[in-house]
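note to self: dont lose this again. the chain is below, predicted strucutre after it. 202 aa total, dont forget to put it in the shared folder this time
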Amino acid sequence: MFTSRSWLIFCGVRFSELIAVKVSHLNLPDRTLLVASGKGSKSRMLYPPPECLNALSEWTAYRAKMGCRHDWLFAYDANRRVGKIAVREMLEDIKAIAGLASHDNIKPHSIRHAFATRLMENGADIRSIQAALGHADATTTLIYLHAAEQPAKAMAELASLTAKPPIQPAAQHLAAEFSRSSERASKREAYRRRRTRGTACL
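---
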């Protein structure tokens, strides 16, 4: 089931989104994948790389030969879709083959984290990563990427009295986004504390 692994590796989908995809959600001519049942009942469009699309093209051809009697894209057999247990077992098999069976930190969700980090390292901006992951708030994306220390380090360089090379645009954007997101988070926390105090007084 390389195709389902492709969804995890190249698209960063959630576990529940992976097993819920249907044949109609895949548009090979347009090179798109629709996540129709995202968190909070929100949908989003994904644009996977050629490796993923090639695997999906091969899979759909093989799936047609199976004579599937359902419209789930990832079929276990002609009557059943792939479920969570099957995906977990597949991942454990891959870990064993790679000599990583004892690495309990490698889970389907950690592959989603790796997808997001790879986008950031390759130059994607925070808003694009947020959209790809289906996050409602950029603050969640920043926490998800464990990226807080990166803009902090970038700003530390700017505080030096010694002349430094100009900060790179990507780091500059990340620093600004982190600053705005932190401010929003502080305001929400202050609001929550005021409501808590008000409730306590009652």
